[in-house]
Amino acid sequence: MGLLGFKEILDRITRLEERFAKLEERYVELQERFARLEERVTSLEERFTRLEERFAKLEERFSRLEERFAELEKRFIDLEERHYKLEERVARVEEELRESRRLLTVIAHRFGIISEEAFRQAMRYVVQDVLKVAKVERWVYRDTEGLVYGYPSIVDVDVAVRDKEHVLIEVKSRASKSDVAELYRIGQLYERVEKVKPKLVIVAGFVDPDAIELARSLGIEIIPIITT
């Protein structure tokens, strides 16, 4: 019995030693896993540090980009202002050139360098610009009653239709009192034929003082070709 009891104790000790050996193996395994985890944590910390550094560099670059963008915005605003001023200067130069062309055309006609028809065609763009119309047509009618000139004749005048308003236009290098009276009679003839009361306009390079007074009394608008 004593020997049996002793053997049982030895068996239990052996099993305990085996279990302890397994525990030691698991402990070693856990230590290795823990070491690997530490390595991974260390690696992650290093990667995180590198990410922080990269993020700091990105923030720095972004700040520089913001500064450059602000500088570009300032330069763009400056360019816009300069462009606007340049456009104004170009517009003034173009207007001065138009005025010079008009003046030269008026002078050329006054000295007989160009014909009345050539003068009228040269000033057509002035009429369109002043009246804000795209199309100016020629109205021609045979005045058998002699209402305009006192005897039967062919009457012709430029006509522009603007917002349903009929505008009769005479272009003259120099507008006299007789030109005003003539356009007034043409307007009466036009109203009788077309059943529309027209607006009367004289576009002229030079205007006689008495022509201005008569035009005002007859309701005729005089528009100077050369503006001051």
Using the CA coordinates, give the radius of gyration: 51 Å
Strand order of the largest sheet: 1-2-3-4-5
Structural class: alpha/beta
Oligomerization status of the protein chains: single chain
Task: Report, as a whole number of angstroms, the end-to-end distance.
Answer: 143 Å
Number of helices: 5
Tally of domains: 2
One letter per element, helices H and strands E, the order comes to HHHEEEHEHE
Percent helix: 55-70%
Mean pLDDT: 80
Unreliable spans: none
SS strand fraction: 15-25%
**Basic shape:** rod-shaped
> Mind summarizing the main beta sheet?
5 strands, mixed
Number of strands: 5
Summary of the model, kept short:
This protein has helices at 2-110, 116-122, 124-131, 177-194, 209-218; strands at 137-143, 153-162, 165-175, 199-207, 221-224. It has 228 residues and is an alpha/beta fold.
Please explain how this structure is put together:
With 228 residues, the chain is of the alpha/beta class. The protein has 2 domains: 1-114; 116-224, Trna Endonuclease, Chain: A, domain 1 (3-Layer(aba) Sandwich). It is 67% helix and 18% strand. The chain has helices at 2-110, 116-122, 124-131, 177-194, 209-218; strands at residues 137-143, 153-162, 165-175, 199-207, 221-224. Strands 1-2-3-4-5 form a 5-stranded mixed β-sheet, sandwiched between helices. Helix 4 runs parallel beside helix 5. The chain is rod-shaped and about 160 Å long. The model has no long low-confidence stretch (mean pLDDT 80).
